[in-house]
Design a protein that fits this description.
This protein is an alpha/beta fold. The protein has two domains: 62 residues, Transferase, Pyrimidine Nucleoside Phosphorylase, Chain C (Transferase, Pyrimidine Nucleoside Phosphorylase, Chain A, domain 3), CATH 1.20.970.10; 254 residues, Pyrimidine Nucleoside Phosphorylase, Chain A, domain 2 (3-Layer(aba) Sandwich). Helix content is 48%, strand content 11%. Strands 1-4-5-6-7 form a five-stranded mixed beta sheet, with helices on both faces. Strands 2-3 form a two-stranded parallel ribbon. Helix 11 links the parallel strand 4 and strand 5. Helix 5 packs across helix 15.
């Protein structure tokens, strides 16, 4: 580990194989908390490196519990977190809206670490069960149109990292890995990141997966999703563009419009308000913008505005709320 840290402190990039071996050692319990903290801190000091993210991802997927969807096509809507914006659970709500529109969603997420309320926090507060049992998850998916992969259940080796992440309370390369680690390897993904360089790294990685259809979004003012507070850089296999709020059919929002509260109970309250059509217009619009972009990822032949309209109808009709009801049934 000493030579590894020397290399990292010299800002020398790790090869894919070295990164794989490093995280495998961490996942197998062969590194102390102090060594893990040193590695995390060193990597945090510089921009994301493609070979490192590839190697870390290789190790995490090898150590994870896989899920076989049996040929079902699905989408994951997930962000890195760590943008420091304290928004409500936009990507998770967007997942319910997309499922309400008739598309299978296999959502991967975890507890908030660098933010107050993560997807697992709010879903657990609502009574959504966490399991790694494949039959139970597929039954949820078929019944409700959505199932949730709670990251700690599917990546048990990362229990060795949890104490360090909780004590540091800052974003790290584990935030960057999260969107790339869905154990079901869904056919479609909408991935959000707070950093434009990370978006490029994601693009390079996903370009190597010919069966994966994806959209990567980075809000130019630092959100890890479409925020409608300004422009968003969007890239997929065959296009790159900047989308403005009006491209989604909405007006520009303010940062305070997206505040998600500081407790799980506050996050839960906003979550239910959106699904019950009792939220603010800003909360509704930003959810529909992200859900619309997800639907557009599945149906690129349709216009973005048409996909946003589908998302709005899913929410307004109560079908998105029905997804939650069936998930809890």
């Amino acid at each position: 580990m000493k030579s590894l840290l020397t290399q990292l402190y010299a800002r020398e990039p790790l090869s894919r194989q070295t990164a794989y071996e490093t995280l495998s050692r961490v996942g197998n319990g062969e590194a102390s908390d102090m060594e893990i903290a040193a590695v995390v801190s060193a990597i945090n000091m510089r921009p994301a490196v493609l070979s490192e993210i590839q190697g870390f991802r290789d190790a995490m997927l090898e150590l994870s519990r896989p899920i076989d969807l049996g040929g079902r096509q699905s989408i994951d809507i997930v962000g890195t977190g760590g943008d420091g914006k304290d928004t409500f659970n936009i990507s998770t709500l967007s997942s319910f809206v997309v499922a309400g529109a008739g598309h299978l969603v296999t959502k991967h997420g975890s507890y908030g670490v660098s933010s107050s309320v993560g997807s697992s926090d709010v879903l657990q507060s609502l009574g959504v069960p966490f399991t790694h049992e494949e039959d139970a998850l597929l039954a949820m998916l078929d019944r409700a149109g959505i199932c949730f992969f709670h990251a700690p259940v599917f990546h048990p080796a990362m229990k060795n990292v949890v104490p360090v992440r909780k004590s540091l309370r800052v974003r790290s390369f584990f935030n960057l890995l999260g969107p790339l680690l869905n154990p079901a390897k869904p056919t479609h993904s909408l991935l959000g990141t707070y950093d434009r360089q990370v978006a490029r790294v994601y693009d390079y990685i996903l370009q190597e997966e010919p069966d994966q259809q994806y959209t990567i979004v980075h809000a130019l003012d630092g959100y890890d999703e479409v925020s409608l507070t300004g422009g968003a850089a969007v890239r997929s296999k065959d296009r790159q563009k900047i989308l403005q709020p009006e491209d989604f059919g909405f007006s520009q929002l303010r940062q305070e419009d997206l505040y998600g509260g500081s407790t799980v109970e506050e996050g839960k309250k906003i979550f239910l308000a959106v699904l019950n059509n009792e939220s603010t217009a800003a909360q509704r619009d930003v959810v529909c913008a992200n859900a619309g972009l997800a639907i557009h990822t599945i149906h690129p032949e349709r216009s973005l505005l048409d996909c946003v309209a589908t998302a709005q109808e899913s929410l307004a009709s109560g079908r998105a709320r029905g997804v939650l009801n069936r998930l809890l049934a």
